[in-house]
Specification:
The chain is α+β, with helices and mostly antiparallel strands. The protein is built from 2 helices and 6 strands; from the N terminus they run αβββαβββ.
Length: about 120
């Protein structure tokens, strides 16, 4: 089976976070699905602006660990727009064997604990 590319894995993470944001009634203003273009989501909720950075990783990496320098840079950018900044890390693993790469049409598990606000 063909392994998923970095872009395809990132898109899976975008889908997971996008569904979470929809469920929480965020209104999407801008969506950027490129992995290194931050933030990926610019949203409105309760008349407040929100910047959400999405990062995908594969097992055994922990999805809640983020690049503090990057997140501070995005947060500083958000301050200019009076936006709250969040990190959304999404981890993936092959469902049958965590050591196998993710591949097309193969089951996978998701490790996503929701949005982490950067204060």
């Amino acid at each position: 089976m063909e392994a998923l590319s970095e872009q395809e894995i990132h898109q899976l993470a975008m889908d997971v976070v996008g569904e979470d944001l929809k469920d929480k009634s965020f209104e999407f203003l801008t969506v950027n699905s490129k992995p290194k273009k931050d933030p990926q989501f610019v949203c409105l909720k309760d008349k407040s602006l929100h910047f959400i950075v999405v990062k995908a990783c594969l097992y055994p990496k922990n999805p809640i660990i983020f690049d503090a320098a990057l997140m501070n840079q995005v947060k500083e950018h958000g301050v200019k727009f009076k936006a709250r900044t969040y990190y959304a890390g999404v981890g993936f693993a092959h469902a049958e064997d965590y050591q196998k790469p993710l591949s097309k049409n193969a089951p996978y598990v998701v490790n996503y604990d929701g949005l982490q606000e950067i204060l």
